[in-house]
Structures are given as structure tokens and as C-alpha cells.
Predict the structure.
Amino acid sequence: MLYKSFCEDDTKKIAESIAKKSKPGDIFCLNGDLGNGKTFFVSAFAKALGIAENISSPTFTILNEYHGEKINLYHFDVYRISDPDELEYTNYPDYFYGDGICLIEWAELIKNIIPDYATQIFFYKNLNISESYRLIKLI
Ligand SMILES: Nc1ncnc2c1ncn2[C@@H]1O[C@H](COP(=O)(O)OP(=O)(O)OP(=O)(O)O)[C@@H](O)[C@H]1O
Ligand SMILES: [Mg+2]
């Protein structure tokens, strides 16, 4: 599935529509360069699930947990990880194979431990179109 986002609000709507279709146990891998909108997407996704807390980038913590009314959301950012072993202390299998929804920024860095049923989402900029354009590709 391909989505074209021309502004933050478009990305918000795309994230909401994906969030509304999501199910317990789903895993979304968020791939794309720095500043392409991965954290922005997580924030809109969380709001659509009724999570009121502000979503910040968990770059220095690897994992932030959010507890929604109906579902928990696990937001990973593994940018600073050089080896999947560094994830051990998060007990990541409990999250990957649990009843919440996992959103993993920079998941390509740990692709060998990501279950193959995970949904891959790619965020691309195209500065020839505009500063705020994003192509969002779902596989
Ligand atoms: N169409 C758009 N969709 C999403 N974000 C946009 C869009 N246009 C502009 N932005 C801005 O781009 C920035 C994206 O930052 P964000 O932190 O989400 O990137 P990121 O992919 O998580 O980067 P990092 O790899 O550093 O974690 C935000 O400041 C957001 O407001
Ligand atoms: Mg981010």
C-alpha cells in the first residue's frame, strides 16, 4: 500500500487509519532516515488508540510503554543499538509476542529478531516535491 503525505495532517490521517485496523499482537517496523516522520507517526497512531500521553522519542531508553484503554502500545527506537543482544534487558519477546502493539523505529537494525509477520512501513522524503512531502509505503 502506498500513501502520499503532503503535510503533517495527512500523515496523522494515515496513521489513524492504520491504527484503527490494527490488532493485538501486531508489529509495525518503521524504517526511514532521520527526521522522516517515524516518531510523528507513532504519536498520531497512539492518539487514535485513545492514548493521551505525549509520545516522545525513546532514543535514549529503547522502549517506552503506553497504556491505552483497550490496548498497550510499545514504542521501540533501536537507533543506538549496535547489537540485538543489547535488547535483552527489555525482555523484548514479552512485547513482540504479547497482546499489545509494537511500533519499532529503525527496526532494520535488528531485523534478524523481528517476526516475519511484522508489517514494514517505509518513510521517504522527496525534496523535489516539498520539504513536508512523505511517501509512506506499507508492506
Ligand atoms: N508530511 C509529514 N509527515 C510527518 N512529519 C512531517 C511531515 N512534514 C513535516 N514533518 C515534520 O518532520 C519531522 C519528523 O520528525 P520525527 O521525529 O517524526 O522523525 P523520525 O523519523 O522519528 O526521526 P529519527 O530517526 O531521528 O527518530 C517532525 O518535525 C514533523 O513535524
Ligand atoms: Mg524518531
In short: The longest strand covers residues 130-138. The chain has a mean pLDDT of 93. The domain at 2-138 is CATH 3.40.50.300 (Rossmann fold). Residues 5, 7-8, 10-11, 32, 34-40, 57, 105, 132, 134 surround adenosine-5'-triphosphate (ligand 1) (CB under 6 Å).
